[in-house]
Design brief:
By secondary structure, the protein is mainly beta. It has one domain (2-118). 6% of the residues lie in helices and 55% in strands. It is built from one helix and eight strands, in the order βββββαβββ. Strands 1-2-3-4-8-7-6-5 form an eight-stranded antiparallel beta barrel. It is globular, with a radius of gyration of 14 Å. The model has no long low-confidence stretch (mean pLDDT 94).
Length: 124
């Protein structure tokens, strides 16, 4: 399955995180650049799903910041994990590589609000 992060210059600069799930791109708007620092949490606001073709879309305001494949780490599937409010995935991209978690939060009473965090890698 694919994922893409698009840098989007709209009213405010943000990053669109999109994961392929059941033939569409489930999407979150992340106000700040996604980070690989597990100490840093990022707000991720779930937005409308997009068609798969949107994964390669670029224009003057939207550029591909990162892309690659991902593995769902929560059973039974990504759609079920999203519905339950907690998704853990392993991203394989140029900028984002490793395990990331998205967890729905009740922050500001908005069910669209999630937290994106890089899961700490095991110590070697």
């Amino acid at each position: 399955m694919i994922y893409v992060v698009q840098r989007h210059r709209a009213t405010t600069l943000h990053f669109d995180l999109r994961l392929e799930v059941d033939g569409v791109l489930v999407s979150w708007a992340v106000p700040k650049e996604p980070t690989t620092d597990p100490r840093v949490k990022r707000l991720a606001v779930q937005v409308d799903d997009h068609e798969l073709e949107h994964a390669t879309y670029e224009d003057a305001d939207k550029t591909i910041w990162d892309h690659g494949t991902y593995e769902n780490l929560i059973e039974p599937d990504a759609a079920g994990a999203i519905a339950a409010g907690h998704l853990k995935v392993r991203l394989h991209g140029a900028r984002l590589d490793g395990v990331f978690a998205l967890t729905r939060t009740s922050m500001n009473g908005d069910p669209r609000n999630w937290i994106l965090v890089k899961v700490a890698d095991p110590q070697v």
